[in-house]
Amino acid sequence: MHRALAVAALIALAGCVAGLGEVTDFEDEGATTGEQWGDDPIVVAIDGDDDRNYAPFVREAVDYWETNGSRYAAYDAEFVLRPDAGDPDLVVDFVPEVGQCGDVSGPAGCAPRLSADDRVDTPLTVEIQSDLSNESTTFVVKHEFGHVLGLTHDDEPQDVMGNESSLATLPEPDATERALPWNDSTLTVAVDAANASDPDGARKQVRHALDYYERGGEATVPENVSFRLVGNRSMADVVIDFTDELPCDDGTGSCGTRGGVDVDDDGELERYNRLRISVSGVNTDAVGWHVGYWLGYGFGFTDGSDWPDPFRDADSGDRRSEWWR
After folding, report:
1. How far is the C-alpha of 194 from the C-alpha of 200, rounded, in Å?
2. 83 pLDDT exceeds 80?
3. Among 52, 214, 263, 305, fewest CB within 10 Å belongs to which?
């Protein structure tokens, strides 16, 4: 049996907004670039609710803008990183969720965008999502510091200031390691039995498989798992097709393909959001077994021992039996 894997990258916004925080505009003909901060370097502190060491990521962002600021920034500024500073000018606050940032919901970061003519009431705060990977954390801090230096999402360098990027979070349990690898315990199911030799019989067999897992699948899935049949396959988490040819294998039998998201960019799915089960040339009495096997695959089963007893070393007679009882 062939198993196919589909991976979807997480696309997240590194958002920000002009005028956020304690920033007021003023006019001063004698002002020069950077005067809103005074003559001293901008002291940067770090805050966070966990024990993670964020200083290296902020340091890399500071170093980047000290090297490239004169080329891109709206004004000249010098940063000094003092993570535990008692009276900083700028605080980089690492939070579980950034929340609303101007007109953007759920960004990975948020910072005020300053110009050379903005007066600053310190300390200013830059918020950064705290569960990003090391590389993504550095990128978002670098991006938000660009806003502090007056840059918008349309400004160069676009590889830093663009408003969308593929971001990864810290390592999370893979879908195969979770008791329930779906976001919801109720899965929607679409069944297309038009090509089955006995459509009504095939649907009854599918129902046996669904009922089996709703009863816990012999304690292999959480007790709150349930299924809801839907007519629109595009709205279904699980699609069960009866086909003339298998899309993911040669010959007759069945196959399954699951897809989801790889939020920590480790090459493995952390959550599933779709499962397609294809059945071809299978005796009607064995349809439920084939569907039940691939439903187990959709719950993250990989090793033979993960499946309930009816799906281990089953012969043709076992598959055509009332295994669900």
Report:
1. 9
2. yes
3. 305
